[in-house]
Design a protein that fits this description.
Elements lengths: L2 H14 L2 H8 L3 H15 L4 E3 L4 E3 L1 H25 L7 E7 L1 H18 L3 E7 L6 H4 L3 E5 L7 E9 L1 E5 L1 H7 L12 E5 L9 E4 L2 E4 L3 E6 L2 H9 L5 E4 L4 H6 L3 E3 L8 E8 L6 H25 L1
Parallel strand pairs: 3-4, 3-5, 8-11
Antiparallel strand pairs: 1-2, 5-14, 6-14, 7-12, 7-13, 9-10
Helix pairs in contact: 1-2, 1-3, 1-4, 2-3, 5-10
């Protein structure tokens, strides 16, 4: 039995949540995945997984073994990267993650231009509206919006985004323009879930912060759906400035209560502390940081 391969299969099963999902990820027959996990359990003389028809759960011994296996695999991968010369030449796979809309509009163009300049690097760009663990997902760099909580990561700020409350001119003509946050209590609101740092209905007055929410008329699960609903005149939304930059610039949406907006949120590229830093990571940071800063500065000018 190849124990290293069995560890990798076990981690895939745990990360994907089921044997069938792991088989699809590994592009291996389900019977092969199941057999490798069973062989590993037989070799160790313990039960690692509790299997059900849909999901698998780790036993206590399984949790300890998976944690140790993850450390071992990361050490082996690090040794392979060093042996492959990632610390001498910018090469290898670079894994970057970002929120979906920001990644599509701002990070992807920068990343494609970077790839054109770095033929020895391949890029895996994961766009997802949740904050992932760099270690768990084996990600090299993440773009984060909001104040950072993980002090173990190194952060380089590339700009800020503002929380924006807005509505369509047709809605405002029908319902009136709110002049104070308290006026929103008489308005229809569109709420959504799906973004890791969804802006709250929070405002500033002098040195105090307070919250007033409109009546929830519609709830959706994506930012795009909320914006389309606001454009159709169904109510007021709160989003981040980059998400409605085009709509604000064209006048299809109108910003509201800007004088009461909370402080902008930082936008940062974060990565794990390492010495030395792999050249593929350093090369991407050197390329992306000045370009994203210029892009964010231009965006801020167009949305204020």
């Amino acid at each position: 039995m190849d124990r290293f391969e069995a560890m990798s299969v076990l981690l895939a099963v745990v990360e994907e949540g089921s044997l069938s999902a792991a088989s699809r990820r590994l592009r291996a027959p389900l019977a092969t995945v199941s057999r490798k996990v069973a062989d590993l359990e037989r070799h160790l003389g313990i039960r690692l997984l509790v299997r059900s028809s849909r999901r698998v759960e780790l036993t206590d011994a399984g949790r300890d073994y998976v944690a140790a296996s993850r450390r071992i695999i990361e050490q082996v991968e690090e040794a392979e990267r060093q042996a492959a010369g990632e610390y001498r030449v910018a090469r290898g796979e670079l894994h970057v993650t970002a929120p979906i809309m920001f990644g599509q509009r701002h990070l992807l163009p920068v990343a494609l231009a970077f790839l054109a300049e770095q033929p020895e690097i391949s890029l895996r760009l994961m766009l997802v509206d949740r904050q992932i663990s760099l270690a768990d997902e084996h990600a090299d760099i993440a773009l984060r919006i909001g104040h950072l909580e993980d002090s173990a990561l190194v952060a380089t700020r590339v700009g800020t985004v503002r929380r924006v409350i807005c509505a369509s001119p047709s809605y405002l003509a029908r319902r009136g323009v709110p002049r104070r946050p308290e006026d929103l209590a008489q308005h229809d609101g569109i709420s959504f879930r799906g973004f890791a740092h969804s802006p709250e209905w929070r405002y500033r007055r002098d040195s105090t912060a307070f919250t007033v929410e409109p009546r929830q008329r519609l709830a959706v699960n994506t930012t795009e759906a909320a914006i389309q609903s606001a454009l159709a005149g169904f109510g007021v939304i709160r989003v981040l400035s980059y998400q409605v930059a085009d709509e604000l610039r064209s006048g299809r949406l109108q910003s509201l209560l800007a004088d009461f907006a909370p402080e902008p949120m930082p936008v940062s590229l974060v990565y794990a502390m390492a010495e030395p830093l792999p050249l593929k990571v350093r090369s991407f940071l050197n390329w992306a940081v000045p370009r994203l800063r210029a892009d964010m500065a231009d965006l801020d000018t167009k949305t204020t």
